[in-house]
Amino acid sequence: MNQLDALETQSVFILREAYRSFKDLVMLWSIGKDSTVLLWLARKAFFGHVPIPLMHVDTSYKVPEMIEYRDRFALEWKLNLIVGQNKEALANKQTFPDGNLSRLDCCKKLKSEALKHTLSGEWPRWVMDHSTGKFVKDEKAQPFTGVIVGARADEEGSRSKERYFSPRDRHSEWDVAEQPPELWNQFNTDFAPGTHIRIHPLLDWTELNIWEYIEREKIPIIDLYFDKGTGRRYRSLGCAPCTGTVDSTAKNVPEIIDELKSGKFSNIAERSGRQQDAEDGGGLETLRRDGYM
After folding, report:
1. Would you tell me which CATH number, out of the four given (3.40.50.620, 3.50.50.60, 3.40.720.10, 1.10.510.10), belongs to the domain 3-205+282-289?
2. What is the pTM of this model?
């Protein structure tokens, strides 16, 4: 068994174990490469069907192509897609692009708070109606307490402190010091009532592993990751006002893999184009303690 096979097998096991162990389960889909690989693995784990609803937190500042890609594949793959948003903050212009918040506080409003209250069902949700291709208000809005996330330990420092099954309190807040040990592939899925669980099937994957798997599986990834003749492309996707491109002429997946193997980005953090990370001291721990993924 090669490395990609071993990683795939482990991730499929984690997904099935999560589905077996937790009832109120949802999977986050950011539309980026990692969460799209996670979605692909879920389709493999459940034989082409994804029995877990997907959730996207829409800040309204995503690159427009990301939303088009999201809706197209939700319809094509028959996904149960839920969208949440902090409409109050947007209506009151409590955002960084409006000049009223720092980047970090904007992320807290549009991502952390939106995620927390969308998961709990306190704020309105919209679900994809596959008969019309439009979003309609979700009248059920049951709380989700288990959240599957495409985080990787190598992506930035705070994520390296996670576990495959990582507990949060009932407010989705993370106590980094209270992480259960996971030794010899023994995973704890027995938590006290009221515990929120974050599940990380991609924790041991690297950026190179992700792209090698995309190439092997022919996963239809969004083309914002490729140079379109400008000599620049996105390496990490986020909100347009806070996410920059990198110098790169890679126009396809094999060329991205060649860049990663050559060491072109060996001293450049994957999320170096994310300005909110710099504002948070070069990491995401402040945001993640409050529920950010």
Report:
1. 3.40.50.620
2. 0.88
